[in-house]
């Protein structure tokens, strides 16, 4: 039998673990209370139900991981069964709920978001296919998700665009991103528009592509200015938005510094212990012609619009990192983690010497 003192200690522990505080309560615009409970972490319950469209993409996996680690129930819409398998272990039992969807199917979109108190739209395409053009995804798809979210009474919508989104851009990718923002605002006026810069990370198409195909990054003689940002910083910023009841407007999330492509290529070369690429600088006309020919295979290769983007500098706008409670990190602090695998066994002991920094 348990002694009276032991029972009292057990009761005290139970009460202390179940203790509530003011910060555990969040009231959404529709007066719906969100109450979190449990010890912080993987097995807690944040009280939020979140839908992440585009969860199987580069940014999506990190956002789902951060949300699930807080005890959030995450709806992960997927198109192909194998694409979402890695998301299941990110949350506790029953916290990661996968649902099949199609961006053109309004009924499926409704089912994916009707129980959520915040919806993230991370859907995007870096190249066009015969089934999905830029406008199908960035404009019509974004508008459809925003319209259905408004009709379903979802309190929060976070739409991820791009730092260089502009209706006057020479890139069709950037133009459709800007048009998609306008359609989202019309359908969901209180939406939060997030504009991150070029993201880098483990599975990126930025540093990895520079290490594999530097010839395509030497376009414009490496003078194109970019503001790369760590994908983990962007994911954390999106996660922090969940705790803010309302945040209408646009949030720009560029990297902390402006770097030239030439500097980045030199950095990749120094970290991978490979000599600088001796490939010639292709004229823009030839690069565009080769990119058009590269559309013949069924697998994705560089597209003409990607070539066009190699000549566009990132916009010089201040970052809104303080608003989301994140301090972006320098690319030099993380590049070695993602580029080490490209080193050669013949010269692995060569010391790393970074090139001179750009402005």
From TrEMBL:
Q: Which domain of life is it from?
A: Eukaryota
Any single Gene Ontology cellular-component annotation: mitochondrion
Enumerate the Pfam families for this protein.
Epimerase
- What's a single GO MF annotation on this record? protein-containing complex binding
InterPro entries in the record: ComplexI_NDUFA9_subunit, Epimerase_deHydtase, NAD(P)-bd_dom_sf
CDD domains, A to Z: NDUFA9_like_SDR_a (cd05271)
Where the record annotates domain NAD-dependent epimerase/dehydratase, the positions are: 50-162
Write the record's keywords in alphabetical order, separated by commas: Ubiquinone
Q: Report if keyword Disulfide bond is assigned.
A: no
- Name of the protein described by the UniProt record: 39kDa subunit of Ndufa9, NADH ubiquinone oxidoreductase
Organism annotation: Suillus placidus
Which classification does the entry list for the species?
A: Eukaryota, Fungi, Dikarya, Basidiomycota, Agaricomycotina
């Amino acid at each position: 039998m348990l002694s009276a003192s032991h029972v009292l200690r057990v009761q005290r522990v139970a009460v202390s673990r179940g203790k509530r505080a003011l910060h555990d309560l969040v009231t959404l615009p529709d007066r719906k209370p969100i109450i979190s409970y449990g010890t912080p972490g993987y097995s807690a319950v944040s009280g939020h139900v979140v839908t992440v469209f585009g969860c199987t993409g580069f940014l999506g996996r990190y956002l789902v991981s951060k949300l699930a680690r807080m005890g959030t129930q995450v709806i992960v819409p997927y198109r192909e069964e194998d694409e979402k398998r890695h998301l299941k272990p990110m949350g506790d039992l029953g916290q990661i709920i996968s649902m099949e969807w199609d961006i053109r199917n309004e009924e499926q979109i409704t089912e994916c978001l009707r129980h959520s108190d915040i919806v993230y739209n991370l859907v995007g395409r870096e190249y066009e296919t015969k089934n999905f053009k830029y406008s199908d995804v960035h404009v019509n798809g974004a508008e459809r998700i925003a319209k259905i979210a408004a009709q379903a009474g979802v309190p929060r919508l976070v739409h991820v665009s791009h730092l260089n989104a502009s209706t006057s851009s020479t890139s069709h990718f950037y133009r459709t991103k800007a048009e998609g923002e306008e359609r989202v605002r019309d359908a969901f006026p209180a939406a939060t528009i997030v504009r991150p810069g070029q993201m880098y990370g483990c599975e990126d198409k930025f540093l990895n592509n520079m290490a594999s195909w530097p010839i395509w990054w030497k376009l414009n003689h490496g003078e194109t200015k970019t503001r790369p940002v760590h994908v983990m910083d962007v994911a954390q910023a999106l996660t922090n938005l969940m705790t803010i009841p309302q945040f209408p407007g646009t949030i720009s999330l560029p990297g902390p510094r402006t770097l030239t492509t030439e500097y980045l290529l030199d950095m990749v070369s120094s970290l991978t212990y490979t000599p600088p690429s001796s490939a010639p600088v292709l004229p823009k006309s030839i690069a565009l012609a080769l990119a058009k020919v590269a559309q013949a295979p069924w697998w994705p290769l560089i597209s003409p619009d990607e070539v066009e983007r190699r000549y566009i500098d990132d916009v010089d706008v201040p970052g809104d990192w303080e608003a989301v409670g994140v301090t972006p990190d320098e690319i030099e602090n993380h590049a070695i983690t993602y580029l080490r695998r490209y080193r050669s066994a013949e010269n692995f002991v060569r010391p790393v010497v970074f090139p001179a920094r750009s402005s």
